[in-house]
Amino acid sequence: MEFDAFVNRIIDEGISAARESYRDRPVHLEGAVAGFECCRGRDVPGLRAALQVAREEKTAARLRTDPKYWMYACFAAEVEWVCNCVSAALLNQGLPTIVTPTARGFMKAAAVAGTKPLGDA
What we know:
By secondary structure, this protein is mostly helical. It has a domain at 3-82. It is 73% helix and 0% strand. It has helices spanning 3-21, 26-39, 44-63, 69-92, 103-113. Helix 2 (26-39) packs parallel to helix 4 and helix 4 packs across helix 5 (103-113). It is globular. The relative contact order is 0.15.
């Protein structure tokens, strides 16, 4: 699977899930969708940079007690989710990762790529 197609599917499925999870929390939804969209069209260094900025903005929002803190938090969480899934795919190929991938990241990456996670029979 091509890198862009992989990332776009993570993004599209993530936005769909966010719309369901945050349907009654518009600030959360705004941040989540923006976080996913921020990842679209980026390569690995671009994702790494986006994650760094998202984390910094989230921290700054918390420190200034911004009333839209949850927008920043959800934005950062979804950028991190994309980086988690991409990192799982990268690690599977023996390449350097963006973040340490989680088990859920590996499972999602495997589902999107159409393969079974390591250890499944």
